[in-house]
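Team,

Forwarding the record for the chain on the shared tracking sheet. I've put the sequence and predicted structure together so nobody has to dig through attachments.
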Amino acid sequence: MTELVVKDVSFQYDQNIVLDKVNFNLTSPGLHALIGPNGAGKSTILKLILSLLKPTRGEILIDGKDSAHFRDQCGYVPQTNRFDKDFPITAHEVIRMGVNKRLPKEQVAALEKDLLSMLSLEKILHKQFGKLSGGQMQRILIARALMCHPKLLILDEPTSNIDPETTRLIHNTLFRLKEEILILMVSHDLESIVADVDSVFCVQNHVVKYQPDKVCSHFQMGVYHSDSHDQTEHPPILKKEHPSTAKPENQEEEKSD
């Protein structure tokens, strides 16, 4: 079991406070989502967990140790990828960039075979990466992130600006993987993800945790309600296939900006 602990974490750029006293715990396996308006601090939380940024205050632990010690055991799919599309590298070579050298060759080969099938990549494996469609690129990048056999998989908007078929494939893949590892992703696509995630973290400088059946469409704009409100005034955004009956679990008291 993997445990992620974010404890009293604050972060600021110069004098701009992005996150203030954020606290939450996650244990594997499971799939969890970060939602909120642009600029709320969602991507910053991911980068802090990955030790790409350092907290102004607080600490982030994985299995009781600073998260920096687990960089090679965390898979990461960033929101944007800037690269030269004419660079002569194949899709297969991009996938192999994610291999954890600590893994035995036999395990790497078995893992790669499973990922190619899971993400339907066999037919594009030897094509130039820069010539692929956006959806094909995203599937390749998810496979690369999984090639390290991660304890923690982090995705920043994995289905942004890609076709519906690829979106369904990615969601199905994450739904399968959530039975095995800990997954944390940022998403604006509430209607697609809310049926499959185990919990939702609403971000706007602070973080409040909700069970999926309590999430409403206005949450994406940073307008959240607590369990003290009449839930009938805030209907869920859709009827979910995997309903949860637990009440929302506030990590800290909600504050105004």
